[in-house]
Amino acid sequence: MTRVLITGANRGLGLEFVRQYLKQDNPPEIIIATCRDPDKATELRELAESSSSVHIFKLDTTDFDGLPNFVNKVDELVGDNGLDILINNAGAYLKVSLLEGSSDDIIENFKINAVAPFMITRSLYSTLRKSGAKNNLPVVVNVTSKMGSIQDNTSGGHYAYRTSKTALNMITKSMSVDLSNSGIKAVAIHPGWVRTAMGGPNGLIDTFESVTNMIRVIAEVRVGTNKGLFLNYDGAEIEW
Ligand SMILES: NC(=O)c1ccc[n+]([C@@H]2O[C@H](COP(=O)([O-])OP(=O)(O)OC[C@H]3O[C@@H](n4cnc5c(N)ncnc54)[C@H](OP(=O)(O)O)[C@@H]3O)[C@@H](O)[C@H]2O)c1
Predict the structure, then answer these.
(1) Strand 30-35 vs strand 185-190: parallel, antiparallel, or unpaired?
(2) Which family is this sequence assigned to (predicted)?
(3) Which structural domains are found in the chain, ordered by start?
């Protein structure tokens, strides 16, 4: 039985992860869905009311002082079985171009998109280690963006967002090396250009297409031999 934790699960891709995991033939035993304001997370609360597997935990991913308390709550819930899948999904886009936008915005975007996934993963390291059927390894999934690919950058701009996701990619690569001795995988996945509040109405795919594919890819990564990859939502490799 799988235990999954998803950050930023109140809307967009995070909410769809919860929805699609629940629809699986063999759904996770525990889905920890975090959000900043559970009172306002109406759709997520509806999912939690429909299934006892969904547990809503309040988490501002940039509140690093609150992490020990958060991890205690996670450990209490999952017990000795640990956590199998950590999806660092929460993220933000702050607009910074060459001549507009502040240094504070760049730092804030870094904090949300790169430092927070790092701190959360570090805090949950021992919880992830407890998981571990040998052929179905625990995995850290960092939801990144193709906009963080240096190779793919032909249009420039977006300084805060692009660099924060490039940093997240490097964090993922280092994690994949550091965690491999503990039998934990780490991958960066680009969800596609998706119609969410962040992706806007012109996105090429909807959350269903993005997330059903990502769930399949995550399952493949857990049983596969590759690690430290930067993957598209359909499983294709993306150049760093
Ligand atoms: N949509 C796309 O086309 C696209 C493309 C590439 C990558 N991505 C990545 O996919 C992920 C999900 O994006 P989305 O499209 O679903 O965006 P979204 O609809 O804007 O949702 C963003 C989520 O992140 C949460 N969040 C932001 N800052 C947070 C913080 N400090 N603490 C906790 N939660 C925080 C938001 O919570 P609140 O509701 O509380 O703000 C919300 O749940 C992000 O990492 C994004 O960079 C998206």
Answers:
(1) unpaired
(2) Belongs to the short-chain dehydrogenases/reductases (SDR) family.
(3) 3-232 (3.40.50.720)
Residue of minimum CA distance from atom 35 in ligand 1:
90
Which structure tokens are listed for 155? Answer: 């249009």
**Mean of per-residue pLDDT scores for the chain:** 96
List the strands of the sheet with 185-190, edge to edge. 54-58, 30-35, 3-6, 85-88, 139-143, 185-190, 230-232
CA distance 194 to 232: 12
Give the number of residues written for the chain: 240
CB atoms within 10 A of CB 204: 11
pLDDT exceeds cutoff 70 at 133: no
d(CA 150, CA 154): 9
Q: Output the six-digit token pair for 147.
A: 């906009």
Site to substitute for ligand 1 among 6, 7, 10, 13, most atoms within 8 A of C-beta: 13
- Which pLDDT does position 136 carry in this prediction? 87
Task: Please give the average per-residue pLDDT across 33-62, as a whole number.
Answer: 98
3-state secondary structure of 121: helix
- Is residue 1 very low, low, confident or very high in pLDDT (cuts 50, 70, 90)? confident
**CB-defined site of ligand 1, < 6 Å:** 8, 10-14, 35-37, 60-62, 89-92, 112, 143, 145, 190-191, 193-194, 196-199, 203
Q: Distance between the two ends of the chain, CA-based, in angstroms?
A: 33
Q: Whose CA is nearest to atom 26 of ligand 1?
A: 90
Distance 94 CA to ligand 1 centre (A): 11
